[in-house]
Design goal:
By secondary structure, the chain is an alpha+beta fold. The protein has ten helices and four strands; from the N terminus they run ααααααααβββαβα. The chain has a four-stranded antiparallel beta sheet. Helix 1 packs across helix 6, helix 2 packs parallel to helix 6 and helix 3 runs antiparallel to helix 6.
Length: 310
């Protein structure tokens, strides 16, 4: 493996260096923000206690912008890192005609692909894992009084790692199919957008949505994953949000300034996934992405096996 790591570094040193620098820099920023916010909380109960000790959204004013910018940057890392590292693996060899030598020397194309991918997977896994842990610590420090649940799901912890591996292996497959680095990168960008949208749309569907108590609605802080809003009438019927809002507005509009008995009006009912079900969703999504990674890896191997080295 040491030899393969050296080979991977020699062939993709600029790509690896760029991804490593980006991941480590963002990890450092996230870790510093987490430490700084926790140092503020350490003053709680003392004469120097900060305002953050007494409010749910402790760091909205002091650290909000820095945390949000860091989270935004981290959101792009799986797609940028995956494409930069994955696309050139096969495309560079075909484009520069070095596959004519490298593939026969390896004994088999599958062995060549395995030994080229293994060190990249290892390097990527280490770098992204460090970033995922730092981002997770930053998110927990940002909401110290809340169950984090699904808040920032895509840019912290295991989902960040799995998305990176998915894009990495997709980049390898696209590069093998097209055989040109720049066109493969452009196609990979489109695929990355589609993957991001698909995973975002799929997130609320890994487990069935249930009625959420008011304490877990989106108005009560991070944690749960709201998916729908309905109204329940005084007789127990469920109606859609538009109809319920119209009834409430009409009731107050009929007698402006007059107080109405809330029990006579429809009230909001939130549906979604409770924060306590975060591990269940995480396991299901991770398993699904893992299967897709294996399938795309097999597809990439099949493409390499049938492709002309040019």
């Amino acid at each position: 493996m040491t030899t393969q790591l050296r080979l991977a570094w020699r062939l993709q040193r600029w790509e690896i260096a760029f991804v490593a620098l980006a991941c480590l820099a963002l990890s450092g920023v996230a870790a510093w923000l987490a430490i700084d916010m926790r140092s503020v909380l350490a003053t709680c109960g003392t004469a120097a206690a900060a305002h953050a000790c007494d409010v749910i959204y402790a760091f909205q004013d002091s650290h909000g912008t820095a945390v949000q910018l860091t989270q935004m940057a981290i959101t792009f890392v799986p797609y940028v890192a995956g494409l930069i590292l994955g696309v050139p693996v096969v495309a560079h060899e075909v484009e520069h005609r070095t596959a004519l030598i490298a593939w026969p020397l390896a004994g088999s194309r599958l062995r060549w692909l395995t030994w080229r991918l293994a060190p990249l997977f290892l390097v990527t896994l280490v770098l992204i894992s460090v970033l995922a842990v730092a981002a997770d610590q930053m998110s927990h420090a940002y909401f110290p009084h809340s169950d984090l649940g699904f808040d920032g799901y895509e840019y912290r912890g295991l989902p960040l790692v799995m998305r990176t591996l998915l894009i990495l292996v997709s980049g390898v497959a696209i590069g093998a199919l097209l055989g040109r680095t720049l066109p493969a990168l452009l196609v990979g960008i489109g695929v990355s957008v589609a993957v991001a949208v698909a995973l975002s749309l799929a997130l609320p569907h890994w487990v069935p949505a249930t009625e959420l108590p008011i304490a877990e609605s989106f108005m009560s802080g991070p944690g749960s994953l709201p998916t729908d809003l309905k109204y329940r009438t005084p007789d127990g019927r469920l109606i859609d949000a538009e109809e319920g809002s119209r009834i409430v507005e009409a009731a107050y509009g009929a007698n402006p300034g007059q107080e109405r008995d809330p029990s006579t009006l429809p009230h909001e009912v939130f549906y979604g996934i409770a924060a306590s079900r975060y591990p269940e969703v995480l396991v299901r999504e991770t398993a699904a992405i893992g299967l897709v990674v294996v399938a795309i890896g097999a597809l990439a191997a099949a493409i390499v096996g049938r492709r002309r080295p040019e």
